[in-house]
Specification:
Blueprint: H1 2-28, E1 32-38, E2 41-43, E3 46-49, E4 54-59, E5 68-69, E6 85-89, E7 95-100, E8 108-113
Parallel strand pairs: 1-4, 3-8
Antiparallel strand pairs: 1-2, 4-6, 5-7, 7-8
């Protein structure tokens, strides 16, 4: 009886370790977010993301656009013709990142980058 109890305890410990490990691993995987460019706007206009996530900007409008960081031009998609898309890897700095279309400066959006999760 003691031997089966010991095996059961070992299985419980192993299962707990594996479940904890897999939830940490899945939390660290980047998410992919979609921002649609259409009707002279970014949709959604604001988005909350984590460092390392992907943001895919899809131009579904009828005119070209850009996705350009406003303050320092830290990122710039160049001109996106209709039907094209551009991917951004979210930088590892927490806070707000504002972007706009350089061809249509009234088109604006922002990313709110959350701090990275603590181990």
């Amino acid at each position: 009886m003691k031997r089966s109890s010991l095996r059961f305890s070992a299985l419980v410990v192993l299962a707990a370790w594996f479940c904890g490990f897999s939830s940490v691993a899945s939390a660290a995987e980047p998410a992919t977010h979609i921002v649609t460019i259409e009707n002279m706007r970014f949709s959604p206009a604001t988005l909350t993301v984590r460092p390392g996530d992907w943001v895919v900007f899809k131009n579904q409008g009828i005119v070209p656009h850009t996705v350009t960081e406003k303050a320092t031009k830290a990122f710039d998609s160049a001109i996106l013709p209709p039907g094209e898309q551009w991917k951004l890897v979210v930088p590892a700095r927490a806070g707000a990142i504002h972007y706009h279309c350089t061809l249509h400066p009234l088109m604006e959006g922002s990313l709110t980058v959350e701090p990275p999760p603590r181990p």
